[in-house]
Specification:
- The protein has 164 residues and is mainly α.
- It has 2 domains: 2-58 and 152-163, no CATH class; 61-147, no CATH class.
- The chain has helices at residues 2-12, 17-24, 31-41, 46-58, 61-77, 81-111, 119-128, 133-156, 158-163.
- Helix 5 runs antiparallel to helix 6, helix 5 packs across helix 7 and helix 6 (81-111) packs across helix 8.
- The model has no long low-confidence stretch (mean pLDDT 89).
Length: 164
């Protein structure tokens, strides 16, 4: 799914390559995974791709951590309770994975690029379950950097060279 979206974006969205990578890295569930794949597809040098992906992935995090509870309450009060309940279920489903290892668990949850993990979901879980804001922020940032390393190896490294 991510690859299909990235291919569509590259073919149809008339933005500069760096802005495209930045914006794609901000999209929930796509995040850095998609941003680095897009950066490689658009011929952006590796270090520039990493910068724009990490920057794009970091930008939404403070807003999620600080505002998601209010947004969910607003959604529930304004005929969007289904979406609000989906967000809460998503957080509840992933909470045990994070709770088991605490700070490191949140970092790994954000950093291991698997479907349904990442900075958005990690921030959602941290905010809904009142994790310490400072610890959650640091853990999420470290996870973002871990994801950047893993996805750079995949996108620009061995696998990226095989796909090219």
């Amino acid at each position: 799914m991510v690859e299909t979206f990235i291919a569509w974006w590259a073919a149809h969205v008339p933005l500069s390559p760096k802005l495209s990578v930045f914006l794609v890295s901000m999209i929930p569930l796509i995040e850095e995974r998609g941003g680095l794949i897009l950066a490689r597809m658009l011929g952006i040098p590796m270090w520039e791709g990493i910068f724009w992906c990490v920057f794009g992935n970091i930008v939404p995090i403070p807003f999620i951590l600080l505002l998601i509870k209010s947004v969910i309450h607003w959604m529930a009060d304004h005929h969007m309770s289904g979406a609000a309940e989906w967000l809460i279920r998503k957080a509840e489903k992933n909470k045990p994975k994070i709770d088991r290892y605490g700070f490191a668990g949140l970092m790994l949850f954000v950093g291991i690029p698997l479907p349904g993990t990442g900075a958005w979901t990690g921030s959602l879980v941290a905010a809904l379950f009142d994790m310490d804001l400072k610890k959650a922020s640091i853990s999420i940032l470290l996870g973002i950097f871990l994801a950047a390393v893993i996805m750079t190896i995949i996108s620009y490294g061995l696998i990226g060279n095989v796909i090219s």
